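Quick one, probably user error.
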């Protein structure tokens, strides 16, 4: 499954969308304060 294609268009920045897709594909934890990235479901964030 292509995680990038399946992502909802909550964020317009293509580089950030690639980071989100990679974090989902490889089960990685993201660290961010970007509200658009934080809006994505199923993404793990560092607290």
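Nope, works fine. Designed sequence:
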């Amino acid at each position: 499954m292509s995680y990038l294609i399946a992502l909802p268009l909550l964020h317009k920045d293509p580089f950030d969308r690639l980071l989100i897709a990679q974090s989902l594909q490889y089960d990685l934890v993201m660290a961010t304060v970007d509200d658009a990235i934080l809006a994505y479901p199923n993404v793990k964030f560092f607290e």
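The mean pLDDT is 92.
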